[in-house]
Amino acid sequence: MDVGSRIRYFRKLYNKTLKEISLDTGLSISFISNIEKGIKKCSLENLEVICSAIGITLSEFFNDNLPPEIEELISIAKNLENDKLKTLLTVARSLKAEQKESK
């Protein structure tokens, strides 16, 4: 797994700019960019603060078993207000029940 590519992937998925990550972490834009490009190594400590700034956990960062659609859905859900999140959950449960009935 290429750590820099994963950082870039999640940063873009969560619509975060290098500047935003830099401001939230205290790391320079060029340092983060160089990590993404594979020029610089990323310590676990820096990775943890970068993930936090993106809005993901280290566990989410290292879990590469989820399809991109699920990761996008999680990204969207994390940014919803509570009432909208409940609506999304209701829709998802309804779709799940509908799928069970059709089998």
Automatic annotation (TrEMBL):
Which UniProt keyword terms apply here? DNA-binding
Q: Which residues form the HTH cro/C1-type domain?
A: 7-61
Gene Ontology molecular function, alphabetical:
DNA binding; DNA-binding transcription factor activity
User: Is DNA-binding found in the keyword set?
Assistant: yes
Q: Which Pfam families match?
A: HTH_3 (PF01381)
Q: Which SMART domains match?
A: HTH_XRE
Tagged with keyword Nuclease: no
Which InterPro entries is this protein grouped with? Cro/C1-type_HTH, Lambda_DNA-bd_dom_sf, TransReg_Diox_bact_type
Q: Name one GO cellular component term.
A: cytosol
CDD domains reported for this sequence: HTH_XRE (cd00093)
Q: What is this protein called?
A: Helix-turn-helix domain protein
Q: Which species expresses this protein natively?
A: Caldicellulosiruptor hydrothermalis (strain DSM 18901 / VKM B-2411 / 108)
What lineage is on file? Answer: Bacteria, Bacillati, Bacillota, Bacillota incertae sedis, Caldicellulosiruptorales
